Each structure stands twice: as structure tokens, then as C-alpha cells.
Amino acid sequence: MEQLKLNNGQMIPQLGLGVFKVQDADDLKRSVADALKEGYRHFDTAAIYHNEAWLGEALAQSDVKREELFITSKVWNSNTTYDETIAAFQETLKKLQTDYLDLYLIHWPSEGYNEKWRAMESLYNEGLIKSIGVSNFEKPHLDKLLTTAKIVPTVDQIETHPYFQQKELNEYLRSLDIAHEAWGPLGQGKGNVLEDPTLAKIAEAHNKTIAQVILRWHLQRDIIVIPKSVHAERIAQNIDVFDFKLSDEEMSLIAGIDQNKRGAADPQDEEWLKKSLSMN
Asked: Fold for domain 3-276?
């Protein structure tokens, strides 16, 4: 497993298992067990996924030591104040059956994110979180956050895939030494990216699947990836991407299929962000 060094010196496995939309306890526990067996040590969840407790149980039932794991969760939008963020974090710890998190993120740039960040800085300074970061933040949100932040985020987890490559934001994150983490790295089944002819040709040349080529492309852009699957075969395939390399020409070909096409909510959609405050 390749690892990246974050701006605070902490190491993060560059590939992990995401559990977004896994709403069955048995499916989640089985997929985590399969992932651990294949060598995964990085797991990404969030309060709004309503499966932190199942992930906590699955990891507790394994024989992998806590210090070998990298666990990420996120504080949801409905927690808008310093105190609510602290309370949400404590609830997350309880559900995950751990006494610290490796990475804690603000899930969206909704109301109160500067106050949330202040709470997360306190938790970080207490040693309860190894690294703090954000998710779905674009340049204006980061600029506003940095007007009051004492600590620069280590990570920004954003929608990124070959049809939505986030080139400008990627460059901006690099300039701030903030790691780029991709959610939906395989396109979440939208936009037919897994049937793209350019990717299919590259996959054939390497005797790999299109999904494996996409994950390798992310890794070579120094992006952290958290593909989600509940299927043992795909979980095994998704981590089998460290034995080949895409050429500069192949990387350029993939850069050329960008459609700048978002598949989910827009972080700058103020109306959606406002609505999300009542989602639980």
C-alpha cells in the first residue's frame, strides 16, 4: 500500500474503502472483513451514512490492531456550532468504538463551518484526532476558512473522477499543501465512465479493468481514493493497482476525456446547503 504524507507529518494510506450508501449491517461487516483480508487499512465513513456503529463493530471483531488502522469520519451539516461539533465527534467515537480518529472532516461548507473548525482544532490539540480536514470545499470556502483557522486542513475530500477531474481545484490544493482526496473516484455509476472507450483501450493494454485504470490514474495524480464496494471480487480488484503504471501519454489521454461534469450536489449551491441543515 502506498502512503502519502499529510502537511502535519501524518501518513495516510492512499487507497481505502468507502462505505457511503451501505445500509445493510451484514453487507458492511462482510465487506470490511474482505477488505482487511486484502490488505486495506483505511476506512472512510460519516455520521450521515448511519453506519459508523457497524464499521466500529466490524473493526473491533478483526484481529488488526487499532494503530494499524486509519479511520475517517465526518461531522454533518446540522451541527453548526462549536458545542454541537464536539458532541457529534464524541458520538462518532462511541459508535466507532475507538478513543481517537485518524481524520475528521467537515462534510460540506454549510452554515457555521468556521465554528466547526474551531472545535476540530481543539479536538486535534487534545490529541483526539490525528488530522483534521474538510470535504466538498472549493476555493471560496477554503479562503473563508483560512481567515480564522489556526491550522491548515490536511485534506479536502471532493468529488473527482475522469469525467470531473477538478484540475483547477487540484492545483489550488497543491499550492496550500492540502491533500486531494477523491470521493466517487469511479464516477458512482453515473455518466458511463466505466464504459469509456479511451479508458477501455488503456485497460486492455495493461490487462486490467477500467476501474483499476481509473484508480491508478488517481494515485499517479497523488490523489487519495476511497472506492466503495460490497463485492469481494471488486474489493480485491480495487486494491490490485500497485503493480502497474500508466505512461505520460496515457495520463494525457485520460486528461483529455474530462467533461467537467459533476454527478452530485454542487458545494456552491446555497439553497441545497441550507436544505441540508435539516437532513439527518
From this structure: TIM Barrel (3.20.20)
Write down the domain spans for the chain.
3-276
For residue 6, give the C-alpha cell.
499529510
Active site (annotated) includes residue 49: yes
Reported pTM: 0.97
Secondary structure (H, E, C), 237-254: HHHCCCCCCCCHHHHHHH
Query: Which residues lie closer than 8 Å to 23 by C-beta, 6 or more apart?
Result: 50, 51
Amino acid at 272: W
Contact by Cβ (8 Å): 116, 85: yes
Its sign, for the CA torsion 59, 65, 68, 73, is positive
Annotated catalytic residue: which of 40, 49, 113, 124? 49
Query: Which candidate, 120, 44, 53, 109, places its Cα nearest to that of 84?
Result: 120
Predicted pLDDT at 188: 83
Strands (E) in the chain, as ranges, are 3-5, 11-13, 17-18, 42-44, 70-75, 101-106, 129-135, 155-159, 179-183, 224-225
pLDDT digits (tens, 9 = 90+) for 81-95: 999 999 999 999 999
